[in-house]
Amino acid sequence: MSFVEINFDGLIGPTHNYAGLSFGNIASANNAGQTARPRLAALQGLAKMRALMDLGLPQGFLLPLERPNAHVLRGIGFAGTDAEVCAAAWAADPGLLRNVSAASAMWTANAATVSPGPDTRDGRCHLSVANLSTMLHRSIEAPETEATLRTIFADTRHFAVHGPVLAKLGDEGAANHMRLCAHHGAPGVEVFVYGEQRAGGFPARQDRRAFEAIARRHGLDPARTLFVQQSVAAIDAGAFHNDVVAVANETVLFTHEQAFEDPQALYDAIRTRLPEAVVVEVPASRVSLADAIRSYLFNSQLVSLPSGGMALVLPGEAQETPSVWTWLQELVAGNGPIRQLIVKDVRESMRNGGGPACLRLRVAVDAAAMAAIDPRFLLDDGKWEGLHRLVEAHWPETIAPDDLGNPDLWETCWSARRALRAHLGLAG
Ligand code: SUG
Fold first, then answer.
1. Is the pTM higher than 0.90?
2. CA 276 to centroid of ligand 1, rounded, Å
3. Confidence of residue 316 (pLDDT cuts 50, 70, 90)
């Protein structure tokens, strides 16, 4: 087996809800206060994983974190048992409990930044856990995410897992990182996309210096490493991560015309380093930035098919947005590398601003590194069915905003997580 790319999807956790916690994320704000369907959300996520498996692609998953997180509440002065701590927080400040209850670790594109072995000085695959320090509810993810990644990628002959960079340097991981290469096993051009804060604008969550630190730690070749600024217009239109307006796979960069401050300079820099690169740019005259963000056209998974060519795994909203769907029909009718459209319903996640690409972390590995990955986190038919059954049995059907203060819900969610860990043979 040669090099393969594995998608590690976040198994959507039992506390999935709509608390409107992410300023600058339009879907999260618009759907705040609605009733969420955690069981359906997790099943939609699993169905998407299944679709990738059916294409013949390797599929892994990452775990939901412990939510509500009583340890964090204890650290800020609440005392007692887990349930007492949560009850006290809810009474004192419901917003706090909402923040420590978020199932936001489902968006594993924000778990870490990954540089595969062909790009790094020591030939190992390097993963840097994201600090997610801009949003309170996400800033508490890193320690548990790091523990999970250290379990999955424990073999230091093939992998190096790094902790998060300084919290002052905001870092949101692979959501702002793209890799272009002749094929997954060839040295890549790594593109790190950062934001610049505009006074009064939505938050620019990715600090340039965070990415510079990560590139240094990963031992990347400076000649094949690009730092580019995300367009201010995109952030202000609601593209809080670059993967809302651009996605890359192997030789292809699929991007909106207004994704970057200086798109021509980026395209030229990529082509100089990778002459076979193909830039598929969608003009604003065909798909407005607003339609791109509403439909999550670019938050599709762009994957190489074992049979050749590439497929886009899109959210249902892309099909429902006429400008987008018309453009996509023309795209696949042409002679370009993108040949197939696969539409998956991930509406529960989409309502919080998380499309197909947000739900996955890509890790490209050779056969030896693949064999070194903890197999409990790699899916086959039987393991997928096991997860499906577990979700059906343990995940709550609905969560309305005030349910988050209900002790019965906390117990249900903690016991769902315990059942999952026991199912996988993990402690605690
Ligand atoms: O960080 N939404 C996430 C969505 C992350 C999407 N990821 C990528 N683009 N890769 C965020 O804004 C909303 C949670 C809430 O409001 O309850 C939230 O965290």
1. yes
2. 34
3. very high
